Amino acid sequence: MRRVYLNPGAGPQDPRAPRAREGLVEGLVELVAAVRRAAGPELELVVDPANLCMGSDLRWGVRRDDGEIDVEATLALLGRAALELAEAGADGLLTIGRINCEVEVVAAALARA
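The structure corresponding to this sequence follows.
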């Protein structure tokens, strides 16, 4: 096995629950670190962080109190997740450009790591 794709499905959640998202980032980082320790450096780890922003209504993105997507908060969360996941041992982060600049934010965070 050369590559593992991690997409830990936490399931839909309250789209305005920042504490839940923070816990998801921390849990995902811990999972990546554990897999990296167990597998060693030869295994390529690709992580999909989509569930960090999946709402209970199955729409994607961090929401404001009015239910609309908070683009800045969503990009900040993805940037933080990308940086912390890279530091934990992820080799790649899967993004599909759901919102403007998503790929650029993740790429910049990975470059900093």
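Helices lie at 18-39, 71-88, 102-112.
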